[in-house]
Design a protein that fits this description.
The complex is a heterodimer of chains A (about 550) and B (about 170).
Chain A lengths: L2 E4 L2 E4 L6 H7 L23 E4 L6 E2 L10 E3 L3 H16 L15 H9 L17 E2 L4 E3 L9 H9 L5 E4 L6 E4 L12 H5 L5 E3 L12 E6 L8 E7 L2 E7 L12 H6 L2 H4 L8 E4 L2 E4 L2 H13 L6 E5 L5 H15 L4 E3 L21 H6 L11 H9 L5 E5 L3 H4 L2 H6 L4 E6 L4 H4 L3 E4 L8 E4 L4 E5 L19 H5 L17 H11 L9 H8 L10 H4 L4 E2 L5 H6 L1
Parallel strand pairs in A: 1-5, 16-17, 16-18, 18-19, 19-20
Antiparallel strand pairs in A: 1-2, 3-4, 3-5, 6-7, 7-10, 8-9, 11-12, 12-13, 14-15, 14-20, 21-22, 22-23
Helix pairs in contact in A: 2-3, 9-16, 9-17
Chain B lengths: L14 H5 L1 H16 L22 E5 L12 H5 L5 E7 L6 E9 L8 H5 L5 E3 L14 E2 L1 H4 E3 H14 L1
Parallel strand pairs in B: 1-6
Antiparallel strand pairs in B: 1-4, 2-3, 3-5
Bound molecules: iron/sulfur cluster (SF4) (4 copies).
């Protein structure tokens, strides 16, 4: 491979790469505002100016193609002077907004002002004023004064979201961003512009002023909004999720996520209608009871049925671990092979960017770990029919608002003698259940999801429950989490009394005389790794970006 | 042999000292002098101590002459506070500076009166006042909200003048 020299380091590059890309691949960071690895090159911010030997003027690293034998200086006197000049230029009309600006703490301009600017301005004239509260679309606000006209947002809409909605207007220092006449920036990926905007010009209407970035903890997770499984970070303060942001994964979602996933997949975790303790139906009313009482009741009632009278509904919203234990519970503890899960597709949801029609995160995983009827057992239609004909008398449902699938089921469920439900929030199904166990949400436990392409990825707990402690169980901690005591109001965030579904089932199995020795989701996964598709994998192997597994014909079956 | 082990004093009393009376008189002079000297104790709480402007009493929020707080809820005081005493929740307003503190709480049991919040504030909105009267009977009362923290600017003008001159 050809080589260039950057600051005395000889590095290899792929022909056609620009200097900035070659440097980045080798861990050298050349400052940049307008350049983005997934967007076209615009070359307007000029902060990436570098000195190249034998070229009389400085060149921009983002659009200069590397060529054999080039000698580049990123720390020379000339380069530093140029950078400082660019910073001074960018800051001339920039408002002193940092105290009221949401970007502070994760702002490129702020960071570079510390790193690359001398910190003095010679500009004493009046700054140019622009509009500060511009509604660009239903989810994004724009502040004209903070914009540094890098055009990243425009290029994102054109190239990634494939809906050109933004453009520059005016000239010189009056240049600003606007939507095309009669349009709004309302494409389903619009909020990614907030992440890539190097400054605080674009802010999220949902998150505006909610929290300072340095007060939150960020946990690496996966969006449960559809079977793409975009990698995310879950931002938590005082045990409450405040925002989700996409996390780079070249195989799954690149740098992006859709607005639906970003806004709608965390509210139920914070919601008021969380199921907060086990519940039993007594004389027609659901009453709150302790875990032991609920377990005892569930055990004695399950025992009263013949094994073929019990059916199990797994869930494509639950993790592989949850589904695996459910399948194991059904087959080897209860001895029933009536087990299946509900497939959910929304044909209006998918597109050819990220969104998938399968609006559950783990249908492939559920299938792979055995939540599907074997020859003698009943599938979902069989179970429905069985309930109608009173052959199925007890139903065990995890993480699924079963009634919502098909309103007809509501009448059917009343025919059951026993309905046990694991749920995180109240739903129509929980309202007719006989026993409810509060289940931890995806943001409260460890586990894995398999996306539609067969990439198995980790989710990690970000919100602590009564069952899982932030410090003891090794969650991400913000500085507030580290030092808060019970005497601080800010440390008293709500903790729900919920447990991971696999944990609840393991306890039940123990009471039914089948000990399952799992203490952590990781141990469940280790046992699961005996399944062909997960052969020999461990949580460590999955790392941050997951692993693509061989799904055999299951994939075709699920995606059909 | 026994005599040798008796230690002599480092300094024996002089004849005058041995007389004893002059020393008594010396002592009494000091006593009488202090009886007629101006006193510097206070009859607190009837009489209050007014500290100098450099004094760091409890932190307060400045309420501007238009009745609005100066604070923009940037959270810097909360970040810099080494004792994690300050909790700020920002909200959006129609005012020109679009951000304001929906909630601003200082836990006076945590506060160590270091004055870092005063120093870091970009809006001159939080000031170490001269108020040192902090008594509470339970932990909850020690958490001061905006109701207790907001103080009209007229009451702390001298502190602000001092800061402008010396900060
Ligand atoms: S965009 Fe960055 S530099 Fe500008 S006001 Fe916001 S935080 Fe400060
Ligand atoms: S709004 Fe942000 S992303 Fe768009 S041009 Fe301005 S600075 Fe760049
Ligand atoms: S595309 Fe799917 S996985 Fe990605 S953010 Fe949207 S809903 Fe979530
Ligand atoms: S530093 Fe000043 S402006 Fe910022 S939150 Fe504290 S008091 Fe308010």
């Amino acid at each position: 491979m050809p080589k260039i020299k950057i600051d005395n380091n000889e590095i290899e590059f792929k022909p056609g790469q620009t200097i900035i890309q070659a440097a980045r691949d080798n861990g050298i960071d050349i400052p940049h505002f307008c350049w983005h690895p997934e967007l076209s090159i615009s070359g307007n911010c000029r902060i990436c100016l570098v000195e190249v030997e034998k070229i009389p003027k400085l060149v921009i690293a983002c659009s200069t193609i590397a060529s054999e034998g080039m000698v580049v200086h990123t720390q020379s006197e000339k380069t530093i002077a140029a950078r400082n000049a660019v910073m001074e230029f960018l800051l001339i009309n920039h408002p002193l907004d940092c105290p009221i600006c949401d970007e502070a703490g994760e702002c490129k301009l702020q960071d570079y002002a510390y790193k690359y600017s001398v910190g003095e301005s010679r500009f004493t004239e009046e700054k140019v004023h622009k509009q500060k509260h511009v509604d660009l679309g239903p989810r994004v606000m724009f502040d004209g004064e903070r914009c540094i006209s890098c055009s990243r947002c425009i290029r994102f809409c054109d190239e990634i979201a494939k809906s050109p909605q933004l453009t520059f207007v005016q000239r010189g220092d009056h240049v600003t961003i606007t939507t095309y006449p009669g349009q709004q920036m309302d494409n389903p990926y619009s909020m990614n512009t907030i992440d890539i905007c190097p400054v605080g010009a674009l802010t999220s209407k949902d998150f505006r002023f909610n929290a300072r970035v340095w007060d939150m903890s960020a946990t690496k997770s996966v969006c449960p909004g559809c079977s793409r499984g975009c990698n995310t970070e879950v931002w938590v303060r005082d045990n409450k999720i405040l925002r989700l942001t996409p996390r780079y994964n070249p195989q799954v979602n690149s740098y992006w996520m859709c607005d639906h996933g970003r806004l709608n997949t965390f509210r139920f975790v914070n919601a008021e209608d969380r199921i907060d303790s086990p519940q039993l139906r007594r004389e027609g009313q659901l009453i709150k009871v302790g875990w032991d009482e609920a377990f005892a009741e569930a055990v004695s009632r399950i025992k009263s049925f013949a094994k073929d009278e019990v059916a199990f509904i797994g869930s494509a919203y639950a993790t592989c671990e949850d589904n695996y234990i459910l399948a194991k519970f059904a087959r080897s503890v209860v001895g029933s092979s009536n087990i299946d899960f509900v497939r959910r597709a929304d044909n209006n949801f998918g597109d050819d960017i990220l969104k998938q029609n399968d609006i559950t995160p783990n249908s492939l995983g559920a299938e792979l770990v055995g939540v599907s009827p074997s020859k003698s057992g009943l599938g979902i239609e069989g179970i429905k029919k069985g309930i109608k004909e009173k052959r199925i008398k007890a139903l065990y449902v995890i993480k699924e608002d079963f009634i919502n699938v098909d309103p007809e089921i509501e009448n059917m469920l009343s025919k059951l003698d026993l309905l046990i439900v694991h749920a995180s929030n109240q739903s129509k199904t929980t309202s007719v259940a006989d026993i409810i166990f509060p289940a931890a949400t995806y943001a409260e436990k460890n586990g894995t999801f398999v996306n539609f392409e067969g990439t198995i990825q980790r989710i990690r707990p970000a919100v602590s429950t009564v069952d899982a402690d932030r410090a003891l169980d090794g969650f991400e901690m913000s500085r507030l989490d580290k030092f808060g005591t019970s005497f601080d109001r800010w440390a008293r965030g709500t903790k729900h009394d919920a447990k991971a579904t696999w944990k609840i089932l393991t306890s039940l199995a123990g009471l039914l005389g089948h000990k399952m020795k799992f203490k952590m989701a990781e141990e469940v996964f280790e046992e699961m790794a005996s399944i062909e598709a997960f052969k020999g994998l461990t949580y460590d192997d999955l790392g941050e970006h997951g692993v693509k597994i061989k799904t055999g014909n299951v994939e075709e079956k699920v995606n059909a | 042999m026994a005599l040798k082990s008796i230690k002599r004093r480092e300094k024996d009393l002089t004849f005058l000292e041995k007389l004893y009376i002059p020393e008594i008189l010396k002592g009494l002079t000091l006593t009488f002098k202090n009886m007629i000297r101006p006193k510097f104790t206070f009859e607190y709480p009837e009489e209050k101590f007014i500290p100098p402007s450099s004094y760091r009493g409890r932190p307060v929020l400045v309420e501007d002459s238009n009745g609005e707080e100066r604070c923009v809820a940037c959270g810097l005081c909360s970040r810099v506070c080494p004792a994690l005493a300050i909790e700020v929740q920002a909200g959006e307003t129609e005012r020109e500076k679009e951000r304001y503190p929906e909630k601003f709480e200082i836990n006076m049991l945590r506060c160590i009166f270091c004055g870092f919040c005063e120093e870091v504030c970009p809006e001159e909105a939080i000031i170490m006042s001269k108020d040192y009267e902090l008594a509470f009977s339970n932990r909850e009362d020690a958490i001061y909200g905006k109701d207790k923290l907001l103080v009209p600017i007229s009451q702390i003008q001298d502190k602000i003048d001092f800061l402008r001159q010396y900060k």
